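ok, trying the design again with the full structure, not the truncated one.
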């Protein structure tokens, strides 16, 4: 079998349409260019990071955006489902060459209840959870799951927003008012309460994620497990690979491969997992959520893997064979939040790679990332400590 017959689509694709124009879209376009593809974007914010790399259409110009591209993908998890379904339908009718990932993957990722139910249906272990749609049900969930518990909106939350940790039964009122009630000034409900999910609070030892790419022929390549550190709900640091997790890799690989195959997924997906202890005291992984797109915890792969997550996503979307996902060098990725560092101080540290997103500074906004991979791995910890000192917002990494 020759590659030309196995992967015919790439011959006729020139332009990739990306729903969203943030830094993920920008880095996808950077990866697409050497392969011979240009990107256009659907994005309403002016001067978005991706605008340096291709034409940007507003959502009012959806039809022009569709006309401008041959195949489509997305970079933003809360992309409305309607245009994704429209693009999938146009592709099924032969007018376009694909919408990847498919709408069903986006729909699942946008709804925590659906997502965790699917995990369990596919025998992927999760934290215990219960759907909650009234204050009485929340009270009941506290009895069933025990305290503390984490109450989350099933839809629309990100970076830890839309969540409440209940420590005692006295928290039920406030948690319900903040997340469930949509309460008016006079105490009456304004609308049907948003669906909520109550999860048992997990005393996890580490947070890890696994990324994988799935091609149009169904082949899958997985990256190493990486360890993630958050600060106030936002990713601060990713270490790739996660040290001492080889005994968990096979379970994580099976979980993400099963999900991708079930969803007929094409492109890169991330699966976030908690490392916890099972009843026998052994390490185990519990699935928390998927991202149906390239992911912040995979940025290290631009320099740290044989083929980056961005290149593999593009390869999958245009129908090319996937590249090797091996880690070429232990790497640490730091997010730059809110304020830019002195770039010359960053680059004075051996083994740093700086990626700006060309955004205006604003508190808690991801505006750049830095990957650190010193040739001498023994110097990683010292180099990391020096690098953290260059960041205006140290995100708790100096402690
Ligand atoms: P999420 O939006 O689900 O990714 O949650 C944001 C962060 O909250 C996670 O990265 C965890 O640090 C923490 N978290 C979420 N769910 C739980 C849970 N069930 N138990 C303990 N911590 C959690």
């Amino acid at each position: 079998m020759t590659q030309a017959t196995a992967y015919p689509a790439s011959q006729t694709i020139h332009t990739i349409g990306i729903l969203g124009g943030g830094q993920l879209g920008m880095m996808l376009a950077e990866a697409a260019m050497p392969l011979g593809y240009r990107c256009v974007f659907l994005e309403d914010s002016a001067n978005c990071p991706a605008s340096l790399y291709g034409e940007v259409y507003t959502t009012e110009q959806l039809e022009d955006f569709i006309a401008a591209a041959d195949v489509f993908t997305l970079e933003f998890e809360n992309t409305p489902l309607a245009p994704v379904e429209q693009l999938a339908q146009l592709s099924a009718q032969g007018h376009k060459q694909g919408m990847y990932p498919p709408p069903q993957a986006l729909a699942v990722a946008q709804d925590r209840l659906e997502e965790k139910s699917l995990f369990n249906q596919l025998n992927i272990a999760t934290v215990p959870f219960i759907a909650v749609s009234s204050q009485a049900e929340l009270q009941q969930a506290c009895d069933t799951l025990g305290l503390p518990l984490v109450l989350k909106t099933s839809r629309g939350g990100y970076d830890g927003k839309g969540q409440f940790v209940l420590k005692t039964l006295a928290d039920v009122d406030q948690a319900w008012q903040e997340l469930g009630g949509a309460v008016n000034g006079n105490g009456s409900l304004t609308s049907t309460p948003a669906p909520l999910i109550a999860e048992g609070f997990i005393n996890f030892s580490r947070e890890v994620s696994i990324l994988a790419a799935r091609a149009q022929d169904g082949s899958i390549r997985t990256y190493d497990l990486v360890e993630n550190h958050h600060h106030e709900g936002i990713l601060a640091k990713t270490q790739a690979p996660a040290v001492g997790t080889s005994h968990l890799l096979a379970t994580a690989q099976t979980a993400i491969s099963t999900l991708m195959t079930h969803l007929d997924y094409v492109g890169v997906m991330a699966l976030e997992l908690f490392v916890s202890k099972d009843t026998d005291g052994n390490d185990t992984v519990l699935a928390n959520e998927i991202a149906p797109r390239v992911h912040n915890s995979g940025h290290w792969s631009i320099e740290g893997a044989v083929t980056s997550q961005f290149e593999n996503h593009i390869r999958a979307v245009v129908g090319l064979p996937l590249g090797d996902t091996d880690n070429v060098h232990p790497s640490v990725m730091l997010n730059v939040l809110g304020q830019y560092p002195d770039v010359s101080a960053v680059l004075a540290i051996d083994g740093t790679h700086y990626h700006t997103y060309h955004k205006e500074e604003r508190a808690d906004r991801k505006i750049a990332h830095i990957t650190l991979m010193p040739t001498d791995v023994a110097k990683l910890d010292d180099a990391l400590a020096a690098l953290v000192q260059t960041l205006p917002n140290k995100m708790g990494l100096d402690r």
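Keeping the full-length input from now on. DSSP finds 13 helices and 17 strands in the chain.
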